[in-house]
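for the recovery benchmark. tokens below, seq after
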């Protein structure tokens, strides 16, 4: 099971690299694409994939952006994430495509990972429930191009431990 899980993560990463290298909507500049050798990640580890349940709470949330502005984002509610060192309640936002995501910061932010934090999707699990897989935690587009304005994590999504999964900081 772990092997097929890792194979799935490797495939997801390969597709992500292909998007960054070849898609018209890539956040990379032409110059960065010419040097792009792929996104760097922490090693995949299935312990960072967890089942969660969403406590729905539709509301507007004031979120600061990477460009300094504050905007209201549609909040979907809160999830309880069963981290190894104890459960943590985190705010979930609606993305532009109708997807659910959690912007978060942790003790790797600003060292191993992008200083502004990362995003992790809340996905449908095979059993019909919801799951969060930090192996798929991604940098916001502003980590690749500062022209992008990206929502930063709200204070309740700051973690006081390292999340050693997902994308590492991008170095062009």
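predicted aa per position
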């Amino acid at each position: 099971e772990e092997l097929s899980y890792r194979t799935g993560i490797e495939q997801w990463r390969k597709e992500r690299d292909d998007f960054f290298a070849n898609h018209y909507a890539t956040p990379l500049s032409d110059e960065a694409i010419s040097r792009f050798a792929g996104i760097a990640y922490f090693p995949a580890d299935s312990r960072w994939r967890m089942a969660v349940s969403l406590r729905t709470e539709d509301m507007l949330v004031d979120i600061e952006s990477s460009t300094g502005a504050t905007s209201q984002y549609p909040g979907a509610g809160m999830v309880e994430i069963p981290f190894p060192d104890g459960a943590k309640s985190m705010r979930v936002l609606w993305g532009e495509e109708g997807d659910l995501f959690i912007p978060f910061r942790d003790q790797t932010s600003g060292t191993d990972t992008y200083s502004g934090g990362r995003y992790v999707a809340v996905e449908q699990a095979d059993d019909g429930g919801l799951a969060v897989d930090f192996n798929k935690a991604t940098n916001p587009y502003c980590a690749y191009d500062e022209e992008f304005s990206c929502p930063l994590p709200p204070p309740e999504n700051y973690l006081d431990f390292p999340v050693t999964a997902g994308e590492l900081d991008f170095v062009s």
